Amino acid sequence: MSNPATSLRHTTEVKTAVFEPHCRFETLEQEFAALAMPPSETQKHLRVVDLHKSYCKGSLEVPVLRGVNLEVGRGEFVAVVGQSGCGKSTLLHLLGTLDAPDKGEIYYGAQRVDNLPAAQRDHLRNRHIGMIFQFYHLLPELNTLENVLFPLMIGHGVGGYLRRRGEFRRRAKELLELLGLSHRVKHRPRELSGGEMQRAAIGRALISNPSLLLADEPTGNLDQATGVEILQILKDLNRRESLTIVMVTHDPLIAAQADRIVRLVAGRIEE
Amino acid sequence: MYKLLLCWRYLRTRYIALASIISVMLGVATMIVVNSVMEGFTAEMQKRIHGIVSDVVFEARSLDGMPDAQWHEHRIRQVVGEEIEGMSSTVVVPAMLSFQHGGNWLTRQVQLIGIDETTQSLVSDFSKYLQHPENRRTMSFQLREGGYDVQDYQSDGEAPPRTQMTEAGWAHRRRMTRLKNFQERMNPASTEKPKPPEALSPSADPFAAHPLTGPEEDKARFDPENEQHTGAVLGIAMISFRTPEGEDKFLALPGDDVKLTFPTAGQPPKVVSDNFTIVDFYESKMSEYDASFVFVPIRKLQELRGMIDPTTGVAMVNAIQIKLKPGADGNLVRDKLRAAFPPELYGVYTWRDKQGPLLAAVNMEITILNVLLFLIIAVAGFGILAIFFMIVVEKTRDIGILKSLGASSRSVMGIFLGYGFSLGAVGAGVGLALGLLMVRYINEFAALIGRITGRPVFDPSIYYFYKIPTVVLPGTVMWIVAGALLIAVAASILPARRAARLHPVEALRYE
């Protein structure tokens, strides 16, 4: 990754060329196209209103989020910092519709997403949100290329996938090349280093051309140099492709790289 | 798409799950083997039964038989003529068989059957089971010069040779006669003539005017070196025994004389006795038949039992064997005949009815074995269930990832159901191959087990087959495989549901 900026610039073009048309095939497509591309620039990409979430530990109810309010603009890179256990990951899971809030609302553009039916939330995660995690979460049975292709396999039926297999594979290989993993295409995750695994995870998050990337401690398990490298990739994605990024971290140095830092203290946001 | 990919990868990387399907595999293989062997035995047995019992048997309820076989045959033809290919009359009567071996008289209880050698082969496979090749072609009650089978022709050369049979026939008869004459000359004291059997008292004979030749005058003219008594075909098992090595030892051979004692027709029955010469052995490999049937010419038997009306020459018979045209329905013919003849005098049976309880018992055995063996596969299903729960726990994080990438709960369930199905398919497939292979080499396999355990699995001295007969029914095999697949899928439903219901956040939190 000698010059990630130029590389990723190129990625944008490929993505537009290859991925725009098929996005209109799906039945939910109109709806989500509207979501992903809000009518006005002033409309926030992501809006969280008075979000509450608590967990039960036995009979004891432990409140984690107590009225989080957050707005993220289109193309913004926001870092959420806070003590470990303060609810950063919970917030991210709620943003990614993996969990439902007890109270409060989440909007993508004008669309409220926290109360969507399960099928639409699955589709939203598959097409419009990319997620990366501290522990990469690659599937150990699959090689790098298959891991990257996996969201496409989920999003398309057997027939649909096989028909466009060549196109998808070409796209995934280009993405891996840009991420500097072209020599690791056939390797299983356990044969990769931490940085390589996180780059593969980024590839997987980007293969569906999402507009929002949620990162949960993306550098938490990496050494300093590799962490910086990963962060650089995220920054380039944000700058060159206007990818909206919400990153959760406990490390102030990493957070400092973002456009804006918000603090999560005692279940509430402090700017 | 990803479901197939993941199923395939899990199948190739989770060997513990493969271990769980070994029981499926063994269950399927065992079921195929057991069904094939049982089916083989049943088929073989039915063939043997059908070989001696014709398609439909029309019999008189009285041991004295029915008068005028011609009239009955004519009447039967009137009722079901278009279905009939051939008919043959028989006289069946319980009898005692006595023969001499090593100076001792041995006696057997037998079923004496008078048959018409010209028509009998039309209605049953009787002649196929004889030991002389000529007799198999055209049955005759005349003793052959020699040339009886030394090698059991029904055994495909598997059986040990019957060396005693090399001398059977006229050669044996002449040798035995000379030996006997020699012994009599050496030891005149023992040749005291036994009291000749009492001639029938004429008053007991329904056809009293019929002249009977006294055994006394008969004996005077009879030259055993060049003459024979009436021919008799003996069931092979009543005159031989089988060593544990599977070799048959004979107590008498074609050419030897035997004495048959049986009741006459009429009231009260008298006992008559006459000499017969063994002309051949009958070997259907149904031990029950081979140990009890003695065949003699029907005319001679009717004569001795006094079943021939001396004025008209019309004879009585006990049963009429009916051979049906191919495709004819035996049950239908039976029912028509039952309606046409008074049931208190005549019994009409198909060959299946005759051995109904035996065939039903075998069928019940097959059913019970199948239920038991299927339970084995069901037990294997619980193994799959347990191992699947383990795999779901192990894959918790992966399930979380799948969901975070947009996989629906239903498709996560689909992965594990598909995985269960593929495990079942592999198990059933390998089991199928193993089962068919074992059926193919069942005899080699039985011999191997016999060698290892030191006890023969298949003892040819008990069964009259030298090899284990097998029949593979494709329908049965299909059902077995389908059942195994169903169980594998059913066993994976619970773990798959659990996987589907995993909360993605809970799943991802694992580390």
Structural class of chain B: alpha+beta
The percent of residues in helical segments of chain B reads: 40-55%
- The total number of structural domains of chain B is 2
Q: What percentage of amino acids of chain B are in beta strands?
A: 15-25%
What's the story with the biggest beta sheet of chain B?
6 strands, mixed, barrel
- The name of the CATH superfamily of chain A reads P-loop containing nucleotide triphosphate hydrolases
Largest two-chain interface: A-B, 35 and 27 residues
Content-based structural category of chain A: alpha/beta
Give an account of the 3D structure:
- The complex is a heterodimer of chains A (271) and B (511).
- Chain A has 271 residues and is of the alpha/beta class.
- Chain A has one domain (4-45, 74-100, 117-263): P-loop containing nucleotide triphosphate hydrolases (Rossmann fold), CATH 3.40.50.
- Helix content of chain A is 40%, strand content 23%.
- In chain A, the strands form 2 sheets. In chain A, strands 6-7-8-3-9-10 form a 6-stranded mixed sheet. A 4-stranded antiparallel sheet of chain A has the order 2-1-4-5, with helices on one face.
- The longest helix of chain A has 18 residues, at 224-241.
- Chain A is globular and about 50 Å long.
- Chain A starts with a helix and ends with a strand.
- Chain B has 511 residues and is α+β, with helices and mostly antiparallel strands.
- Helix content of chain B is 48%, strand content 16%.
- Chain B has 18 helices and 11 strands.
- Chain B has helices at residues 2-13, 15-20, 22-52, 69-80, 120-123, 133-137, 170-186, 215-221, 287-290, 298-305, 330-340, 351-354, 356-394, 396-404, 409-440, 442-453, 474-501, 504-509, and strands spanning 56-60, 84-101, 104-115, 230-235, 240-242, 248-250, 257-263, 271-282, 293-297, 319-324, 346-350.
- In chain B, the strands form 2 sheets. A 6-stranded mixed β-barrel of chain B has the order 2-3-9-4-8-7.
- In chain B, a hairpin with a 2-residue loop joins strand 2 (84-101) and strand 3.
- Mean pLDDT of chain B is 82; it is low at 195-215.
- Chain A binds chain B through residues 89-90, 93, 96, 98-99, 118-119, 122-127, 131, 133, 135, 137-142, 146, 150-151, 153-158, 161-162, 204, and chain B through 1-2, 4-6, 9-10, 13, 397-398, 400-409, 411, 503-505, 508-509, 511.
